Amino acid sequence: MHRRAMPPRADWPAQLDRIGLTYHSLDGGYWREDVAYEFTEPQVDCLESATTSLHRLCVDAVERIIRDDRFADLLIPENWRPRIIESWERQEPSLYGRFDFWYDGVGAPKLLEYNADTPTSLIEAAVGQWGWLRDTAPEADQFNRLHERLIGQWGTIREQAQTDLLHLVCLDGSDEDRQTVTYLADTANQAGWRVQTLPIEQIGWEPGRQRFVDHRNEPISVLFKLYPWEWMCQDAFAAELSRSSMLVLEPAWKQVLSHKGLLALLWEWYPDHPNLLPAFFSGPGDCTAYVRKPFWSREGANISIVNGDQVLATGGPYDAEISVFQQYMPLPAFDGWHPVIGSWVIGDEPAGIGIREDRGLIHGNQSRFVPHRVVKDVLVS
Amino acid sequence: MVKKWPDGPLSGSVTPRLRQSTEVRVRLAAMADGLGEMVWIAAGHGPGAPLVSDTISAPDQADCCPDDEVKDVCERGGFGLTGGQFYKSEEGL
N or C terminus: which one in chain B shows less Cβ crowding within 10 Å? Predict the structure, then answer.
């Protein structure tokens, strides 16, 4: 694993605009291609193997949480548990998820968190870095089957659905989310779906017919929402949603996987797993250095790293009192930058990686996306 | 979904597989980008209209539905408020 300086394409902003990655220059430059990460094939195999293994553990974890009634550990309200259980027992399909890994190219990848419900940085991983590779090193490989797998999984879900009309929604205020939903609509459309995107705020409820409808009053039977379950559960339509038969993606059972408490449950059940770090509900355990992560938080908000007397903390709007404690493993440094590997699962299969890096040890919304390529031999320069 | 049970870390090497995206098309993303902000799309709804762009009014301007056959009541704005409290514009999830 190597971080290599690269000449950026002269027209890279236009190239990214063309594929819908219009937020490339937010926060002083979200996308950067003056550098790239290089991996060997065995390193990619290692990441792929870890992703496969952790996905299996997570699938099992859902079953165990339900069977052993561990919802209380995750503070999931009682009135939402039936919906989760029902979605699991129906085996409602999942489209995707993204594991975030500590990885230095030498040791085993370690799970930092699982973005199981609303993962983003998808266009950049699926299409942005692929276009970069074709323009800059067409002979090189990339761990990236995201686009094909998305189309394939949409096709699989289509076979299980009762309709061919798919609605996709997100909050209206984010260019990134809107473009991500648009991209996903494209992949679904290529898989045979009719698609309609709209702001989540525009969804309507018809109490007489007990159904959700779009802005044209078309009934919504299959809904992809780039909007977390824990927020939906607090919204005004929560009660209606709990009794609705609408198929929702990601499914309700993903709530227990997108929850930081999952880290503690996985460690409880698989304490020697090479891809897990020690994690606990009630305190740091034997960890002299640990990271405190709120049960529900996003983009590095309200995270604390405690290392002896030193504390590094980020602010944010989430409740930091309700947290999980995970052993602190400092991110590796490449030229002073700290990468985190986002490893994607589409359906049940690993599908590729995207890399974000930051000068700081806590990644946040301003962490930068950097493309990657797979090489036969890495030359250290 | 095919349920898969955990077997711990995988032993041996992973079967080599094609990693490249063989075909990348983002027709709708490119189209939507060209159409400007606040554009929402529909596609595949008819052979003559593969792509339709919508301009959707703000939620408070569309809090009721047009008449239909049963004059059913329709409530809007029931999703999104919680997220709006946490969410800054142009900030990803």
Answer: N
Radius of gyration for the alpha carbons in chain A, expressed in angstroms and rounded:
20
User: CA A202 to CA A120: how far, in whole Å?
Assistant: 22
Q: Is A226 exposed, middle or buried (0-12, 13-18, 19+ CB in 10 A)?
A: buried
Whether A364 and A331 have beta carbons less than 8 Å apart is answered as no
Ranges of residues in chain A with a pLDDT under 70 are 320, 377-381
Burial class (CB in 10 A: 0-12, 13-18, 19+), A269: middle
- Please name the residues in contact with A281: beta carbons below 8 A apart, sequence gap of 6 or more: A73, A261, A264, A324, A325
Contact A206 B54 (CB under 8 A): no
Contact B26 A141 (CB under 8 A): no
**Interchain CB distance below 8 Å, B59 and A202:** yes
Spatial neighbors of A261 by CB under 8 A, at least 6 apart, are A73, A74, A75, A281, A295, A324
Provide ipTM, 2 decimals.
Answer: 0.88
Tokens describing residue A86: 């029902």
Closest residue in chain B to residue A57, using alpha carbons only: B6
How much is the pLDDT for A366? 83
Taken in order A217, A218, A221, A225, is the CA torsion positive or negative? negative
Rounded to the nearest angstrom, the minimum Cα separation between A298 and chain B is 6
How far, in Å, CA of B15 to CA of B21, rounded? 18
Identify the three-state secondary structure at position A128.
helix
The DSSP symbol for A334 reads: B
Model-level pTM?
A: 0.90
